[in-house]
Amino acid sequence: MTTPGPEEFETHDIYLAAYFKVSGCILARKRRQGQRVFLIFTNPGGPIRDLRYAFYSGSAKVDPHAYSREVIAMKQVVHDV
Predict the structure, then answer these.
(1) What's the angle, vertex CA 69, arms to CA 36 and CA 67, rounded to 5?
(2) CB under 8 Å to 39, separation ≥6 — which residues?
(3) Are the C-beta atoms of residues 53 and 65 closer than 8 Å to each other?
(4) CA distance linking residue 6 with residue 41, whole number of Å
């Protein structure tokens, strides 16, 4: 089992993962811990913590259709483990 490196962010939240993807982050890998699947991302565009803050503060701006498609894609990623 590998843990995220210093430039990576790990989440099991499908909706946050979809936001990361729409925002340009790269899904580096995934891992399973028991029943939970963790998705590990990198962000070539800057600190991923800034994206996380925007998501949880409600200030995130993304295309709603792209986000909706990405939610579906993240669900497929998680269930294909």
Answers:
(1) 85
(2) 10, 11, 12, 17, 27, 30, 74, 77, 78
(3) no
(4) 11
Place of tokens 């891992």: 31
Predicted TM-score (pTM) of the model is 0.87
The two structure tokens encoding residue 63: 């295309």
DSSP state of 44: T
Specify the 3-state DSSP secondary structure of 78.
Answer: helix
Alpha-carbon torsion, ordered 73, 49, 44, 71, to 10 deg: 10
Q: pLDDT tens for the chain, 81 residues: list them.
A: 455 555 899 999 999 999 999 999 999 999 999 999 999 999 998 889 899 999 999 999 999 999 999 999 999 999 885
